[in-house]
Specification:
With 144 residues, this protein is of the alpha+beta class. A hairpin with a 2-residue loop joins β5 and β6. The protein has two domains: 85 residues, PH-domain like, CATH 2.30.29; 50 residues. It contains three helices and seven strands, in the order βααββββββα. Helices cover 44% and strands 35% of the residues.
Length: 144
C-alpha cells in the first residue's frame, strides 16, 4: 500500500494556459496590425507564447502523483525512481509567486545521498515539505 504525499497542482495549468492564450491573442493582433507597425507587440506576444507554451508542456509531462510513500519507507518519484526514506538528507520548498502574491503550489527539492530531485507544480508544497521532513526524521530515528 502506498500513500500519496505530493500531487500536481490543478491551478498552475490555468495560469500557464492563460499566458499562452494571451500571447496567441496578442500575436494575432500584431499580425493583423502588421509586423512592421507592431514589432514590439509582436516580440512580446511571441515571447509570451513561447514561455507559456514551454511551461504548459512541462506541466503536462509531470504525472499527477509526484511523490508517494510505501509502507516499507520507500519514496516513489516520477520516472520510476525509488529512494529509501533514510537516504533523504534535506527537504526544501519554494512557493510560486507573482506580483507579490504567493500561491499554495510551488517547487519541492529533495536532497539525497544519491542526488538532488526537483519537482515543480507541487500542490500545497509547504505542507508536503513539512510532512516529508517529519517522515524523514522519523525514519532516521527508527533506524538508529
Amino acid at each position: 500500500m502506498k500513500i500519496t504525499i505530493a500531487k500536481k497542482s490543478q491551478s498552475a495549468w490555468i495560469q500557464y494556459m492563460f499566458v499562452t492564450v494571451l500571447g496567441l491573442a496578442n500575436l494575432i493582433i500584431a499580425l493583423v496590425i502588421g509586423i512592421e507597425d507592431g514589432v514590439p507587440i509582436f516580440l512580446i506576444a511571441a515571447l509570451l507564447c513561447i514561455v507559456g507554451g514551454i511551461l504548459f508542456v512541462r506541466y503536462l509531462l509531470l504525472p499527477s502523483e509526484i511523490i508517494a510513500l510505501t509502507e516499507d519507507n520507500q519514496l516513489i518519484l516520477p520516472k520510476g525512481v525509488t529512494i529509501p526514506l533514510e537516504a533523504v538528507t534535506d527537504v526544501s520548498y519554494k512557493r510560486a509567486q507573482a506580483k507579490g502574491i504567493q500561491y499554495r503550489w510551488g517547487k519541492i527539492t529533495l536532497e539525497t545521498r544519491m542526488g538532488t530531485y526537483k519537482y515543480d507544480f507541487v500542490a500545497d508544497c509547504e505542507e508536503v515539505a513539512k510532512h516529508l521532513t517529519r517522515q524523514m526524521y522519523a525514519a532516521k530515528y527508527d533506524h538508529t
